[in-house]
Design a protein that fits this description.
The chain is an alpha/beta fold. The strands form four sheets. Strands 1, 2, 3, 4, 7, 8, 9, 10 and 11 form a nine-stranded mixed beta sheet that branches. It has a four-stranded antiparallel beta sheet with strand order 12-15-16-17, covered by helices on one side. Strand 15 and strand 16 form a beta hairpin. The radius of gyration is 22 Å and the shape is globular. The protein starts with 14 loop residues before the first helix and ends in a 29-residue tail after the last helix.
Length: about 500
Amino acid sequence: MTRSSSPFSTGLQVFSVRAALLTMISFAVSTSVIAADSASEKSATKKPNIVFFFIDDLGWTDVGFMGSDSHETPNIDRLASEGLVFTDAYACAPNCAPSRACLMSGQYTPRHGIYTVGDPERGNHAQRKLNPTPNETVLADRFITIAESLHTSGYVSASMGKWHLGTDPTTQGFDVNIAGKEWGSPSGGGYHSPYNYPNLVNKELGEYLTDRLTAEACRFIEANQDGPFFLYLTHYAVHTPIQGREDLVKKYKAKPTPEHHKNAAYAAMVESVDHSVRDVLAKLDELKLADGTIVLFFSDNGGYLGATSNYPLRGGKGMLYEGGIREPMIVRWPGATKPGTRCDEPVIGVDFYPTLLEVTGTKRPENYKLDGVSFAPLLSSPGSSLERPAIFWHFPCYLTGSGDPSGGPFRTTPAGAIRMGRWKLIEWFETGRQELYDLHADIGEQNDLSKSHNDKRKELHEAMLAWRKEVNAPVPATPNPKYDPIKKPGGSKNKGGRKK
């Protein structure tokens, strides 16, 4: 391909039903676009614009519509009330880079080899039983990104904010790059200027990065209002360092202390993201583009436990428990999604790619594997189900921090997971331990049913083994010769520096 320069339901969805649903969606959206600008002679087949809010480290309950007991997000809540909320939406990995690689490539982690951020050998040598799988840090050019595919359909694409998959997203299909590089978190002064990002320099003191990225996004929308455009607004917020705008931090410090979301600076960062949603939606309204624009809201992994709470979910960023991978998700597409609706069908990051191809009428790239399933039929029929048996995660690496069920020094040791219907299985590669949870009855993953439901455990494990074979997923099995269970912890090894 030529690169651009610049809770759950099950069942079967037959092709005829899928085709009928997509026809309904296309007709409804085309009609709404025409109604929004009757003075023009826009074609009924005009492709929708796409605005994708991709937030960094935002937890499942960090926003109001998902039950936050402190964070004020009226604009995100409004977006949810005007669109379709996915209750069981998942990132493809429990931390940043692999989740983003899966989203952009449409493929699970074993296919592109980006499993974690930087060094997979986090922590002390003596505490790792296995040598983890080597990790890639750049999305290779052989992978065809969403932006590259949409480019063939006439889309102008902009990546604004965190990229984390290489030095420049314009080498991978985007026409515009604002502030995107290999960095995983804000550099220099963090969220406050002065800062120096690609195509985003401010030497003056005090500008807030989230606000500036929002302003740049609005300029892009205005410049490309004739469309179609794909705006990938991938905020660095709410990733560390935890730095909120001073006025908002003061506001949250003055509030009564909540039970779960207690960090005032973090709450301020979340509210700044909400302001971003407010301003971008206002720009779409001002230009009469809202009816012809798909707005997506999603996060790359679960909330970081050093800054937030993911209650009632177990765990957080860096873990394959629900708190590390389940995300808030909204889709608003007037004429296709019904305001105030919800969908309990599990979807995952690799599903966005085929969905956007389907709803924009873009051909799939030839001889290129997409692991996801289009959730387009769910937009107008949220009670239906998708045509797949399960979704998967593969994380053959180590991350330091508390959380491992053995009580060790890691947030996670190498592990894999599968969700099949209401059931979820986690396998720990160091020990072979398997944990089975019924997410409908136990969303907090407190009751391991692997022994009492042995047949179900075997069913999920066999499905996971078959998937690993299909995608050629490497499972670390080589013992670490430096492992010493008697040696007391001390020091750490982290080639990549401080990473969350």
